[in-house]
Amino acid sequence: MASVVVDDWVQRQVIQSELMDEESIEWVGQPDPSIIFTKADIFLIPFSILWCGFAIFWEASALGITFKGGGAPLLFALFGVPFVLIGLYMVFGRFFYKAWKKRKTYYAVTNKRIIVITLGIGKNIQAVFIRDIPMINQSIGANGMGSLIFGNTNWQFAMYGNTGMGYFGQYANNAAAIAFYDIRDAKTVYDLVNRIRNRQSQ
């Protein structure tokens, strides 16, 4: 089976240490950090530009830059700073954060579970037993690159999950869904998980 080659150190130190008794790795991969945009950006990019533009205009007006005669009280200027920072993050920062997070994220399919491990400040681990996955949503391109969402979810999770703004979808999602984003040979991984599901249901 085609697979993404991940360094042996990663398998041993990052993934192998999280395995349970009688659990073995079937596939290991990482999201492709070179993929920047998603379908959600058709909405998010214009929205973020409008947000950032309005926030900067507000701040400039409060500082007296846009109109003659002085600015607003200092409180108004301070009030606008968080909105400017949020706007700049939505326009630019989230893409850098997304690429950084992808390089720190590792996916694994075992004979029992789906595992997502993200390194950063500490080690964040998400896992779900394959036998408990009610459904798998797949979005796969002609080149085989794609994303898989394991479990029930809602529109917030689906929309924000791979945009650098995943916290919106994370806290809105009540279901135990996790995802593999922008992986090579996504159809192969999809078929592998389904084979394990079918084997465990017999």
What do you see in this structure?
The protein has helices at 8-15, 41-62, 74-103, 155-160, 166-172, 186-201; strands at residues 25-29, 105-110, 113-120, 122-129, 136-140, 146-150, 178-183. The relative contact order is 0.16. The strands form two sheets. A four-stranded antiparallel sheet has the order 1-2-3-4, with helices on both faces. It has a three-stranded antiparallel sheet with strand order 5-6-7, covered by helices on one side. Mean pLDDT is 85; it is low at 1-5. The protein starts with 7 loop residues before the first helix and ends with a helix. It has 202 residues and is α+β, with helices and mostly antiparallel strands. It has six helices and seven strands, in the order H-E-H-H-E-E-E-E-E-H-H-E-H.
Q: Quick summary of this structure?
A:
By secondary structure, the protein is an alpha+beta fold.
The level of helicity is: 40-55%
Q: What is the terminal separation in angstroms? A: 23 Å
Low-confidence stretches: 1-5
**Overall pLDDT score:** 85
Which strand order spans the largest sheet, edge to edge or round the barrel? 1-2-3-4
- Total of helices: 6
- The backbone outline, from C-alpha atoms, is elongated
Total strands: 7
Q: How is the main sheet built?
A: 4 strands, antiparallel
Q: Report Rg.
A: 21 Å
By helix and strand content, what is the structural category?
alpha+beta
What sequence of helices (H) and strands (E) makes up the elements? HEHHEEEEEHHEH
Strand residue percentage: 15-25%
